[in-house]
Fold this protein.
Amino acid sequence: MIVENITTMSGFLLRGFSDNCELQILHALLFLVAYLFGSAGNFIIITITTLDPQLQYPMYYFLKHLSILDLSSLSVTVPQYVDSSLSGGGYISYGQCMLQIFFFTAFAWGELAILTVMSYDRYIAVCLPLHYEIIMCPRKCRWAVTAVWLGSSIPGTLYIATIFSVRFCRAKIIHQFFCDVPQLLKLSCSNDYLVIMGVADFLSVIGFACFVGIVISYVHIFSTVLRMPSAESRSKVFSTCLLHLFVVSLFLSTGIFAYLNPTTDFPTALEFLFSVFYTVLPPTLNPVIYSLRNDAIKSVVRKLLLSGKFSS
């Protein structure tokens, strides 16, 4: 009955990971915990990097905007899924679906762009420390962040513009926990989806170029760190950089697989798992990787918890 009704409606039905009511509630609780954990971590970073005078440096300026993007990305998909799972619904209007696609795509690509900028910032700081203040001056940092935010809207606009030209003639059931472009393609009744695949191919090339830029930056960082006399400093830089590369690689590889892999009528458990890897995991782990392993941020957090305020 639901399938028949959703076929005639303008919106879509999000089926999530399971039709079992108990499993839906379990998944909703797990997603809620991840959302609260990720939101708290990102909110703490945004707060302390904005208010504390010790953290007014380019690295923390970029980190603040990464946390804003992460918090926004989580908020676009997870709360809606938790609400629909706990209420037993799943219907999402056409307009809501398009907005979800636009904002999720924009925030995801903004995150990749800011991570690329952050890797370049670390490269300058480690490999060219004498030129750091000139190269990473406040004006250039502001321009870089402005470019990230403006550029992040381009992928979302491209996807929305192409999706508007697609006609949906199959049952509007999306086997995913949010409106994901690959799952929308299989509902198309024409070859219009080829245009969307062209956009996905184009963006994948850009994503791969960003990843190559990040890898090149860290190759130079690793080569410089290897010449450091302190084993403790080498270990700390390596552990943080390798975690960064791992999360970026996971985010890009699973996202590219989802967007370039031909969709099936019934997604496998691996496809569902990959969707979590590029939507929920990176924004949740980034605060841990970039903050809880940073001595300056840990010091500020301890000071905040003990005194209840920031010292001037």
User: Anything to note?
Assistant: Residues 94-127 form the longest helix (34 residues).
